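Class prep. Sample record?

___
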Amino acid sequence: MNAPVLAPAPRLDSHPTLRQPQQRDGAALHSLIAACPPLDLNAMYAYLLLCLHHAQTSVVAEIDGKLVGAITAYIPPEQPDTLFVWQVAVAPQQRGQGLGRRMLRHLLSDCIAPRGLRWMETTISPSNQASSRLFTNFAVQHAAGCTTATLFVADDFGESGHEEERLYKIGPWDRAV
């Protein structure tokens, strides 16, 4: 069975619709992530589960029914006051137009604030400067603190050659929203 191919996305001449993902978005989300290196591509099954189990803490952006962006996130069981952002993906044709920032703001207003969450966390590899800028600028724009620390060292990934992952902790939102 062949995976669906992500259709070329239109430019952001109009604003994309932001909404919670639905189960039917799993395959398109998988294709979007595949088109967004350096993001790690996971099994399609993982994206189906994210769309099913973590829809209320994630967001997708679409134009004319085509997925052009997504943020997958969840609340870690041991940190009920934290939204952990797993992946941020913006279709190559949409980059540089503020879609990542807009999706983060959507999560802040529709997920973090209503649930009284205090923190947003994510991990970013040192070479992913675009993601680092996105999150640090987001913290500054919202007058939130941002700390970083190594969460996973390269050796944690075995022989894969994966870089370390740095944990970015942004908040607390009770003072920044």
